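// run 5 | inverse folding | seed 20
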């Protein structure tokens, strides 16, 4: 047998290896770079989502896979542009392997848009003239002469159907729903014909529960028998009952079949009016929570030091849903025992009348105080606000260190408004909070001195991307008083601390007496701005600037603090650890602040 010389075999082997390396080299590509030109905005984004070559896993970046995906690009670009009304795009494509990267370039001429040439949006049947359905049709973005956008067609279709369901037309469906496109003529004909069917109404409601008066539970109902049936009302009712402290589990069933059967039987009965309205019976089954709830809490904050608490709540004292709660709170600066008796009123899901009493000892600036108080408060909703009317009576004993002890009795009515909105209460990306309070007393009505106090607070959170947030907050307060010395410390203003001006101690920004003791002021102004960046997962860093003052007049001498902080978006709220430097206090370099709680 003839054998090639060893040298010839070596040369042949080398050539084969070189060829194989050349052929598989693209399999070593690190990435694919896809460039789409000629279109922008949503159209370009959708093309990039459709392109297979833009979604290849790193392990599949071989020549065969990449070239196969590249051949599909033209048809994928056509599919991606159709939802925006472009049915005849022209695409120039280019593919090359450079270094360790595949480069795919697509220059797209979207072509002329497809316009709507005929449009038929209509509702037929019993609900043809319903205001909600007609509003959905009138508010549609679809119009003759407008470029066809499939998302607008889908939105119109959904809005018409949702309006029908909201109005009680549970059998509503489209007898015709189509987009007919003639690509060569760049025209589209749209037809949406909604057959509403019969209107359903709320029938009798049966409630199965044995812990509260049936009449009290029925006050949670957001509908009456005979109202047009609406599934959203039932969903809101279930949420409202579940959010109470009375029930652990709530099930709501609406029997549509019984409604149709009853309506059919009524139609068939002798002398009945044809087309009897179907009424949907509703059954609510609620299982009770435990009657008592006990809580224990603990924590640490640089303002309060170590703190702890015990609480007991009696969730239902009687069949009318009355509640009682008592709390003991102890920290290094405040010790308090409070009790509240709560009565649901009016809208029982959220309106309350509360009778309360408390005894507490607390430090305000350089004051040591003891306070005993009683109060009554009515809370309800007022538009987007929560509204509160209250009347408090307090006796406060207070003294400065080594100072004379004093006593002050005050009786004061007050009014408050609060507004809070957040996309997520614990992890706010966007949100705002605002509160307003005004109260006052007079010597004529059992107060030690005439006074009137006004306070405004606000906070906001703004997302500047997936990882960046901007937080701002502010406080402003003013007190008009005849004799400031008779005003108890709990009614005076102080600044400084974790949630005020960082870099300064708790309540150490204040007017002082001739012994340099902090005695509080009649006016308050505090502002803060903070930028936060999430470095990894739920952990981030922050930089901030705070400024504020408590003063005897409106000529504020703002104390400023700057610093950096660590943030952890924990399951129970934001954990903050800040290192702050006071810019207007030469006696201190840095102060550490620790706090836990919601951002707004």
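// decoded
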């Amino acid at each position: 047998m003839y054998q090639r010389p060893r040298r010839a075999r070596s040369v042949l082997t080398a050539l084969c290896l070189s060829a194989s390396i050349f052929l598989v080299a693209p399999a070593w590509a690190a990435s694919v770079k896809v460039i789409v030109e000629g279109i922008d905005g949503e159209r370009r984004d959708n093309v990039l989502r459709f392109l297979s070559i833009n979604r290849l896993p790193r392990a599949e970046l071989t020549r065969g896979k990449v070239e196969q995906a590249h051949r599909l690009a033209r048809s994928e670009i056509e599919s991606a542009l159709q939802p925006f009304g472009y049915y005849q795009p022209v695409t120039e494509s280019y593919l090359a392997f450079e270094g360790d990267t595949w480069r795919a370039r697509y220059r797209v001429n979207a072509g002329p848009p497809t316009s709507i040439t005929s449009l038929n949006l209509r509702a037929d049947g019993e609900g043809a003239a319903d205001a909600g359905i007609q509003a959905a049709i009138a508010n549609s973005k679809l119009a003759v002469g407008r470029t066809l956008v499939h998302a607008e067609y889908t939105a119109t279709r959904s809005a018409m159907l949702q309006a029908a369901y909201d109005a009680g037309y549970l059998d509503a469906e489209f007898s015709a729903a189509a987009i007919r496109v003639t690509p060569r003529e760049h025209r589209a004909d749209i037809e949406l014909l909604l057959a509403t069917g019969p209107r359903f109404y709320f029938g009798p409601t049966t409630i199965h529960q044995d812990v509260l008066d049936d009449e009290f539970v029925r006050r949670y109902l957001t509908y009456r028998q005979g109202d047009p049936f609406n599934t959203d009302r039932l969903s809101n009712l279930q949420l409202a009952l579940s959010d109470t402290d009375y029930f652990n589990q709530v099930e709501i069933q609406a029997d549509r079949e019984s409604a149709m059967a009853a309506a059919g039987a009524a139609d068939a009965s002798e002398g009945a009016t044809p087309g009897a309205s179907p009424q949907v019976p509703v059954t609510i089954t609620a299982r009770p929570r435990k009657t008592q709830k006990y809580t224990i809490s603990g924590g640490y904050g640089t303002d309060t030091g170590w703190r702890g608490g015990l609480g007991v709540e009696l969730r239902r004292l009687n069949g009318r849903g009355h509640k009682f709660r008592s709390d003991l709170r102890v920290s290094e600066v405040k010790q308090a025992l409070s009790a509240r008796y709560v009565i649901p009123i009016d809208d029982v899901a959220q309106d309350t009348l509360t009778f309360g009493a408390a005894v507490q000892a607390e430090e305000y600036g350089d004051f040591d105080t003891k306070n005993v108080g009683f109060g009554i408060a009515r809370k309800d909703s007022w538009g987007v606000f929560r509204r509160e009317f209250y009347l408090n009576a307090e006796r406060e004993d207070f003294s400065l260190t080594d100072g004379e002890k004093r006593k002050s009795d005050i009786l004061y009515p007050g009014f408050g408004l609060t507004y809070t909105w957040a996309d997520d209460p614990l992890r706010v990306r966007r949100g705002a909070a605002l509160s307003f309070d005004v109260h006052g007393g007079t010597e004529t009505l059992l107060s030690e001195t005439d006074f009137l106090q006004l306070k405004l607070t606000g906070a906001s959170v703004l997302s500047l991307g997936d990882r960046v947030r901007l937080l701002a907050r502010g406080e402003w307060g003013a007190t008009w008083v005849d004799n400031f010395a008779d005003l108890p410390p709990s009614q005076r203003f102080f600044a400084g601390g974790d949630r005020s001006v960082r870099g300064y101690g708790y309540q150490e920004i204040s007017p002082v007496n001739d012994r340099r003791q902090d005695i509080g002021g009649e006016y308050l102004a505090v502002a803060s701005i903070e930028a936060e960046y999430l470095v990894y997962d739920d952990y981030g860093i922050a930089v901030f600037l705070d400024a504020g003052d408590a003063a005897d007049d409106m000529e504020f001498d703002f104390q400023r603090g700057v610093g950096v902080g660590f943030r952890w978006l924990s399951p129970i709220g934001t954990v903050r650890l800040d290192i702050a430097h006071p810019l207007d206090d030469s006696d201190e370099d840095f102060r550490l602040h620790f706090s836990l709680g919601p951002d707004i």
